[in-house]
Structure formats: structure tokens, C-alpha cells
Fold these 2 entries.
Entry 1:
Amino acid sequence: HYFIQSNLRMVLQSFRVCGNHSRAFKTLLQRGKCVRISQSLKHSKFEWDNEKGSKDGKKFLLLAAAAGAFVSANKDDDVVDAGNFNENLPTYTARDVMARDGSTPHDEMSLSSKVWVSYKEGVYDVTDFITKHPGGEKLLIGAGGPIEPFWSLYAVHKKPYVFKLLEEYRIGNLATSDVVKEDSNDPYADDPQRHPVFNINNSKPYNAEPPLNILADNFITPNELFYVRNHHPVPNIQPEDYELQIEGIGLEEPVILTLSDLETKFPQTTITAAIQCAGNRRADMAQHKAVRGMDWGGAAISNATWTGPKLCHVLEHLGWTEEDNPSVRHVWVDGVDYGPDGSPYGASILIEKAVDPRQDVILALKMNGEVLPRDHGYPVRLVAPGVVGARNVKWVGNITLSEEESHSHWQRRDYKGFNPSIDWHNVDFDDKYAVSIQNQPVTSMVCDPLNGGSVTVSDGKIHLKGYAYSGAGAKVIRVDVTLDDGVTWQTAELIQDDSPLNRAWSWTLWECDAVLPDGMKTGDQVKVTCCAIDANYNRQPEKVKNIWNLRGCLSNSWHSISVNLN
């Protein structure tokens, strides 16, 4: 009781961060700061396993052990309660803080020459600290506003001595009305924290992409920078509560699998696959004519390794075969993320994709070697490589074997392509030619430099880099680059894995030291265009006007930028 009462905030924060009790144990033990507490935890675990009492008694043991571990692990730290209300200080509004953003030189006598920031309920004048800041003037990126987002980016700040130093610059309290508080009625209040570097297209539900100019820096996209496409609030699923129900034609009754079943009863397969949103590059299409949908740039695509059992192996384990059930043509997949009407996000893939072991459809449990992040489907995500992102359902809760495709809104009333003459006044989503998107066409982007930016000329060349991708497993075999509107073309160097031509699930990164056209010099502006070709010799179309569609899906025309030569 002493541990819990005196350290309740720290204990609750540990469970909030860790997400569930078992991971809290692991996190605490891995700190490695106190063997005595580790042994105590193991002893508590033994008592817990053999306890015949209530669940509340078990939770108390966990909570008490966690409290003891946290107290012991932090016993040498000088804990500072930074940012809490101080009744002895004046109160300022967010507008007051915003006016002190350091936008004028420090020697000018004006409000904006000061640098104020806020943290929780506190207001701080850090003007005199700028020259002492280890990160130099990077401190100014948070000037005039809350510093929490930047301290999430640079987590080294979250140390007791930094909090203590911050309090030395405390000048007041932030007005209560300006303090960001969690809304208990907000269905998105429990969404996970995201990296502040994302370009946010929609905050609720959260949809965001990383900056384009860093996208091609890594063949494998870090989990924290993988684009996010959510349709509903992110569910918070405890592993011990997770169940996957599989039902439909060929199964006498629904079958329930636990997370432990998926982890232990089936071979675990690792694949490397890119996932691309159907609306990637929608902004390019919208420049020709308005479309409906989020204004995705070119970074709604990312590449990762995925690990889990193949769906075909799971079905085999249940005794289900395609030969015995020839009427089944589709596999429905529903998540456990629910919309306002109570219906989950759902989609379906073709049976020939689902049951062919060479198609590598998996129920992913890990992403880049780590447990799936919540934003990307924890604990189970369907990864159907080569298929549009909309069918790679997250938080999978139900799989149905059916004669027809899913009745989900997102399968039948969205994510379809139409000809450029179809608009909202004459669209028919039930038209027999309005086929739901599965595979995606070949595409490519220039990622660095950015459009309107500058590029350095070296020996008459400029360095360019980007990505290329084609659906259905078709490998990109070439990326061509032109600096003179297609009069001459240069071939880029490709960065790829060693997958075969017809089973390539990853994207391709490309780089090109492109030779400038004759007569072009520093100070000029050059138009750069790229075009990819896949293993089926499908080539990107030149003009967006010929592929425009009312939802802005499948935008894959040549990509062009203009850059200034330095």
C-alpha cells in the first residue's frame, strides 16, 4: 500500500506506456537496475500462478510489484514534477506565449524578441538559455508554443535533471482553457502517440505520411515512419483477450484461434513487402481536376518486413481446401476497429491469392522484427503482398470464406476505378465494369530533391533519388529519367532485393546522377521526370488527364518536378 499510494502516478504511467501487464513486467525487468526487485517480481509471479483468489488479487500483486520496481529503479533520481500548476506564479494565455516566438533579433526591444514556451501547465522564458542549449538554435522550432511534441521527437529531454533545469526558467502558469486535456468522450483519445515529423492529412481518424525527401533513405521503412491509414479509432487489444474467428463455406462451425495459437501452432514466415494506399499521389491527380479524398502526396507507401503464419497454412490446419470448396471465390477480412454505426472496417481478397503458398499472404504478428505497432494492426494484420493497402486489413478479428466479395462499404462502394468521364452525378458503383481494386499499376516518384527546391551541380550532373513500385508481384526492371521533357532518357541505378521477377513484393529504390542538357548552368531551373517499367513491360502513362477518376485512386502518371541548379 505504501508503494502504491506514494508512487501511484509513476505506476499508472508505466502501465499506460506499456499497454498491458505482461509487457510491463518485461519492461521493468529489462531496466536491469535492481536484481533484488527482479527476484521479487519472479517470486510474485510464482505466487500469482498458484493463487486461487480473484483477478483483483492478481492485479494487486502485479501493481505492487511494478510499483516496487519503479521506486527502486528510480531511487537515485531527483524526481521533479515539472509543468504542474504553481499558485505563486501569474497566469498567461497561449496567445501570450505565441507572441514571444523569437521571430525578431534578441537585441530588439519587442515581445517577439523573447522566446517563451509552455510545458503542461507551465510557462517558461528560455530566451537566455538559447545560447546554452546543446542543440543550438533548434530550440527555436518550439518557440511560442508547447514543447511536448518536440520532446517526444527528442526523447533525451525526458530526464529529471532536464525537468529541474526547465523549472529554473519558469515564469508562470498556462491558462486552464489553453492546457490540452484528454477528452474522455473522444473515441480517439486512446490512439497511440505518433512521430511529429508526419505530414497529417486527417487527425481523426489519423492519416499521415512521412516527409517525401526522407522516404527513399531506407529500403526498409522504420516502424515509426511507416505511413498510417486509419478509418476508425485505433483499438487497444490485450493479447490475452484476442480471438480470431474463421467461418464460412467448408467449415461446419466457426473456429476460434487465440494469439498464442497463431504464434505457436503454425510455421512463421517472414516476407518483405511494400504497402501502398490506393490514394497515393492523389494530389497529382487533383491538380488536373478536383477529386474526393484525402490529399495524399507521394509518401503513402512504405516497405517493411512482416512475420506471421501464412493464411493458407492456417486454412490447411482447419482441414479446409479449395479443391473441396470450389464455390468459394473470396476471403472476407474484418477488423475490430468500429465506426460510429457499429460496423467494422472490412475488405476481401480473391481466393486464388489467399490459398496459393507462393502468394505469401500472411497474418502478420511482427513488423520489422518487432511486435506490430498499434497503428499498424496489433496484434494481427492481414498482409496480402502486391495488393492495394485497403485490402491489407488491420486488427483482424474475423475471416469468412464466401462465394462473393465482402459487402463492406470499402469493398463495394469505394476503392474502385472509373473512366475520366464518370463523375459524382453519373457514377454507379454497382456497374459490372466497376471492379474493386486489388492489384496496383506501376508507379514511381522523385523523392529528393523536392519540387521547387534546389540541387547541387557536380561535374555537370545532379543527384536524384526516389522509389518505384508495381503491384501483383511484378518487379520493377527499369526507371528512366529525363531532364528535357522526354527528348533524351537516362537509366537510373536500382536498389532492390533478390526476389524473382513475378514474386517481388518490395518496392524498388532508385538513384541517378543525371547529366544536365547542353547549355544548362547554375542558376537555371530544370524539369526532372521519372518513369518506371515493370517485369510485364507495363509503363507509367505520361499524362494524368487520361487516368483521372473521381476518387483519385491509382494515380501513376509520370512524375515531374522543377528544381533550381546550385
Entry 2:
Amino acid sequence: RPFTARHPGQSCPVMEIKVVGFVFTYFSLCLISCEENNFVDGDELKLFDFLTNNSRYDVRARPRLENHSLPLEIHTSIFVYFIGNIQAQSLEFETHLLFRHRWKDERLTYTNLSREIKLIEGEDSFSKNIWTPNIFIENERESTLMKTTRDSMFVRIHDTGTVHYHYRLKTVVLCDFKLGRFPHDTQNCTIRMESWSAPNSELILKWENPNPIGENDFSQPEYKVLRIRTREATTVYKEPGENDREMSDLGNLPWLVGRKINGNYSTLMVDFILKREIGQYVIEYYVPSMLLVMMSWVSFWLDPNAVPGRTTLGTSTWLTFITLTRSTGSDQLPKVSYIKFIDIWFLVCTFFIFFSLLEFALVNIIWRRKDTAHMKKLTSGHILAEGMKQIGRAAFTTPSVSRRNSTTDTESKKSMSPFSRRVSRDDRFGSKNSVTSSASFGCNLLSVTSLETYLNAHSDDSDDDNCDTLTINVPVKNSFENGSGQVQGNRLWENVRQRLSREKKEDDQTQTDSTPKLILTEEKKNAFLGEQFQEMTYEEIAVWLDTRARVIFPLCFLVFNLMYWTLVADNNIYDLIAGEEHEQ
């Protein structure tokens, strides 16, 4: 339409319409305000319906603060009803929780709508008509909202717009069990809560102050809850190859790949510090295993030749201990690559029972040799070395040859006179001045244990005046056997025998009476006694080994117990050995 000029005194119709519209709107709002201020006590439901009306409230929109640049803060607290059903095999535990969230939604402010109503409370139907945060448990296996006839949810709205949102949840959560100290372990099972869609630039999760965690008075048969602690963190999601400066500046925050939209998400964590009760393991495993190990030591008091008794005792102890390990609950644990405390105890106890059986086998091998062992000194080192030599010989000797040697030794001992056998047995552990040998004076075969004693006793009492020589048969140390069975003597023994014969001839020339006398100077006597050898039968060596085992085995087991229970009691020593940092 062509433009028409307006006269100076003519009014504008457009301005009139705007003024009329403004006045109408003002009076309408006044009427509505007067009507809204009429909400009185008891009209909470009407007020809630008015606040959440679709014309003024969008449930899909996240609440905005007055300063839109600040993220919305969700303050959270948890009440723990129950922790239980802890399954190390499946690495999970079950817990019943009451979640309590608090935030401010300015759209639900009603201070100007009612002076009497201060709180609006409702259940699950209220939660469907207002915005609620979408918080999920990151390490959950399964979660269900607890209910009786309806879902256990509660909503409370203050007149200032502060919203309290409560709900009960039953969740099965994964837990990273560390079983290196089992059954003396302490587990740290964590629940990680995180915002699903809103990054930390829009929504931040915070713990309520000062006490964000409450707990019910409950008891757990296998674990004891030492404490519950809370933490706040930020979880970062980043696609592979993405170069985001903001994410790279976050330092040591956890980086997760490919889970959801990239970004930084606020995370709340609650740690349950659980310590395993060991009373059951002490009664059902540690004490019986100690008794079984001690029972295997009873064989040390049995005769080395009691093969049926000692074998039955050792094998039955072994089998019983293996059966005992089946009832420790180790089969209910996951298959881990590292060794556990219970494995160390099992292996050491197994070794003690095994070595008690092995000791019997070695002692029985030594016992079966019916012979006398000749040693320079009767010390522990010489006796043990002689026993090991016999075990080595038995390992490369056929049973027929061993039986033949034992038979020959037995027949040679039977051919000795009773007096010789008695002296040999009685003076086997004589003083350092004694030597066990066979002496033939005239027609009598004697076992002389001390030259001085023999000479003093028999120098004037000989009944054989025709004997002009004294022959002293010194035992020959067996070095090896040739094919004909003849025993080759040690050169040292042959030299001793020859020298004694020469000294006897020299003394015979100086004798003035008819009774032969062996006169040796003090220096010659000492030289002879210094070169003498001492002997033990192999049966006595076997008994000696059993006697030492009665002391060594309990002493070693006591030392192991001291070391084991020291590691159990002191976590710092274990962490130093294992090279792990103990989390306090």
C-alpha cells in the first residue's frame, strides 16, 4: 500500500493496540497471581501439578542455574543396609543401598505461590514428572530397584526449589579381589557412580558434607567391614587418535575408550574395606595341618627296621593332609597366577611330611648294612658323611650283593669269641686313647681297646710260654671289592700293622723273663693312639640320624611358623617382599 503521511495531531493505531495488550496482560497476570497465592496447606498435590504442568515445565530439560555458565551440582549420600554374598570365584558382592540425591531446580520454586506450603512430598509418581539425574553404577553386574507393592522411591521439593530424590537399590557389583594374602587378605571393593550423559561441564557429582555414608548395624560371617570411605574423581572418555588439549592436561585420570560420548564425566566412588575373618581357617585348617605334620614325626621314635609301621604312618599322614586341603575353600577361589599365603603353608607342610618319609627311607637303607663303619672321629660331620657314603653305595649296589655282604659280615661276627664281641660293643664309644682291634696272644683271640690297659692286664698272666710273638690284627678299612670278593686294605692300616710288629720284635729282644712283654715308651703310645680309628655300626648310625631328626624337624617347623605369622601380622613386611604398595 502506498505510504500515507500522518498529520501532527493524528494518533497511531499500532501504539494503541500495544498499550491495550500490555494492560490486558498485566491485569491477567495479577489475577493469576492472586489466584496462585491462594494455595494453602493441604493443596500440595494441586501445587505440584501446577508446577509440573507441561506448559511451564519440560521434564526433558536439565535445570539451569541463574549463572548458566556454572554446572549443576548433584549432592549425593548413601545409606548402606547390607553387604554380603561376597563371591571371590565370580569376583562380585551384593549390597543393598539407599541413594539420596539433592539438587536445585529453580523451575520448582514456589515461594511466591504459597506462604503456608513449605514441602511437597511424593513417591514414584512424582519422580516421573520432574527431571532426575541419570546416574549409573559403572562396575555393576546387575541392579534392581527394590520395592514391596510399589517402587521404593521418594521425592521432596522445598519452596526454594531444592529437590531431594531418594531410592533403594539392590546391586551386584564387581570387585577386584587380590588374593595374595588369602586367607589373611583385606579387600577393597569399590562402587563407582557416574553421570551417564552430562559431562562435568554441565553436571558435577559431589558427596554430601560432612557424613555422606551411613550404615546399618549388620554382621557378615566371613568378612568384617573395617571402614567405608568416599572419593571424588573424573573419568575421561577419548577415542583412539583423538588429540584433545583439554583431555591431555588432566594428568593421571583414568582413560576409557569407546564407552560413550567423549568427554570428562564426574565420578563418585565409595570404598568398602573388608577384612576376612580367619577363625574358621585356624580351626579347620591350620591346627589340623600342624597336628598332621607333628604326627609324621612320630616315626622318628620307631625302630628304623619297623618298615610296615613307619611306612603306614607316613603315607596315611600324607593322604590325610591332601584331603584336608580340599576343605579349605581354595577350590572356590579363582585361578590366579600368583602364589597365595595358603599355598605357602600347604607347600611347606607337604615338604615336612615328605621329608619325614624320605628320612625313613634313608635310615632304613643305612640300617640294612650289617657292618661296622670306621671313622677318624665320632663327630656329627663324620657320622653323617659315612651315612651318606652308605646311601651312595646302596644306590649303585644290587640287592643280591648287599645281602651277600651282610651275610658275610654276620658270619664273621659270629666267629668272634664272646669276649671279643662284648668288648667291641662295650667300648665302641671309648675315649680318644682307645682303638678297637683284634689281638691274638698265643691261641687266644682278644679285642684290645687300649694298649696300656691290655699290657697292664696281661703282661704277667700269660699261660702260653711258647708264644714268642704278639700279633695285633688291625681292622682294614674297606675301599672297594674286586671281582673275586677279596677286600683290599687301606695302605695306612697296613703301615700301622707293620710298625707294631717291628716294635713287638724289638721289645721281645729286651725281655728277661719267659712272659712276653710289650714295652712302649710314652711317646710311642701317644703316636699310636693318635693314628687309631673309631667305629660305629651302621645300625647305630641309623639310630643317630633318627635322634637328630627328632630335634631338627620341630626346630625348622618352629622357625617357619615364626616367619609365616610375622608376615601375616605385619603387612608392611609382606608388601616389601611382594613389591606391592599397601593401600592404607
